[in-house]
Amino acid sequence: MDSEILFILILFGAFLAVSLFFYFVPIGLWISALAAGVNVGIFTLVGMRLRRVNPSQIVLPLVKANKAGLDVNVNQLEAHYLAGGDVNRVVDALIAAERASIPLSFERSAAIDLAGRDVLEAVQMSVNPKVIETPIISAVAKNGIELKVRARVTVRANIDRLVGGAGESTIIARVGEGIVTTVGSSEQHTDVLENPDHISRTVLSKGLDAGTAFEILSIDIADVDVGRNIGAQLLTDQAEADKNIAQARAEERRAMAVAQEQEMRAYTQEMQAKVVEAQAEVPKALSEALREGHMGVMDYYNMNNIMADTKMRESLSGISEEK
């Protein structure tokens, strides 16, 4: 019984040892490299395992590069892998650049990949330019008519400026700014409609690809639509605002006039009250004069006769004026 348990433990230990051996020593990968004519030492593969590098991520791209005739070694690929780069994509980009006769070194390709850009896509874009379509850009000519412009920008990747160069959003923003400036400098919107390629030539001459990761090959105006009459709308809004201001000022003057009229009416009533008050003092004065002997009875009657005669003359004068 003890011998059987010992035999099982020996088998298990042997199996574990063989598994660890083939894990740290990828014999199959080493044989594939030798068959492809790539000289990768067995101890180099073991060292990759110890450095926590997946040997297949290094050996297979190395075989691919060797078959393509690229001068790439194991240390370069392993260093790029440890830096967090995509070794397979870098090798594919180098092969594509080699076939397209585009000068691209491994260091440049690795730097582009570590910068977060797709180096393979950049090489493909250098061979096959990409078309970027801008959103609808609203611009207003000098006569106040709005134009809605949509453009297509053909760009080619600039390998030398991929690290640190601006992206597609910058290209779109600069093209939009150029379109707005060009349309805004046109006297009539019909000038733009008659000759839309003037926008392309003017915008393209501004060197909009400076500092970007692309080279602008052409700018084509895809569509131009006539929008609102912004100038007329602004004039209408200004006239409406002026009218409201004038109405407010007129209402202010009317309110002041009404207030002044009310003040004059109150002042008139006050004056009339003073007249009535003064007239009420006359009988008192006459009575006082009669009582103190300053005026006789005959003087009073004569005064009444004079007042009656004056009223009669005033009435007769009023009748003659009516005739």
Structural commentary:
- The N and C termini lie far apart (161 Å).
- The mean pLDDT is 78.
- 66% of the residues lie in helices and 11% in strands.
- It folds into 2 domains: 2-127, no CATH class; 131-232, Tetrahydropterin Synthase, Chain A (2-Layer Sandwich), CATH 3.30.479.
- α4 (56-67) packs across α5 (74-82) and α9 (168-184) crosses α11.
- With 323 residues, the protein is α+β, with helices and mostly antiparallel strands.
- The chain has 13 helices and 4 strands.
- The longest helix is centred in the last third of the chain and has 63 residues, at 230-292.
- A hairpin with a 4-residue loop joins β2 (137-140) and β3.
Could you name the ranges where pLDDT drops below 50 across 5 or more consecutive residues? Answer: none
Main structural class? alpha+beta
Order of helices and strands: HHHHHHHHEEEHHHEHH
Radius of gyration of CA atoms, rounded to a whole number:
52 Å
Inertia-based shape: elongated
In DSSP terms (H or I, runs of 4 or more residues), the helix count works out at 13
Measured by DSSP, the beta-strand proportion falls in 5-15%
Helix content: 55-70%
Largest sheet: 4 strands, antiparallel
Mean pLDDT: 78
Q: How many structurally independent domains?
A: 2
Distance separating the two termini: 161 Å
Number of strands: 4
Pfam families: FloA (PF12127)
Function: Found in functional membrane microdomains (FMM) that may be equivalent to eukaryotic membrane rafts FMMs are highly dynamic and increase in number as cells age. Flotillins are thought to be important factors in membrane fluidity.
Subunit structure: Homooligomerizes.
Protein name: Flotillin-like protein FloA
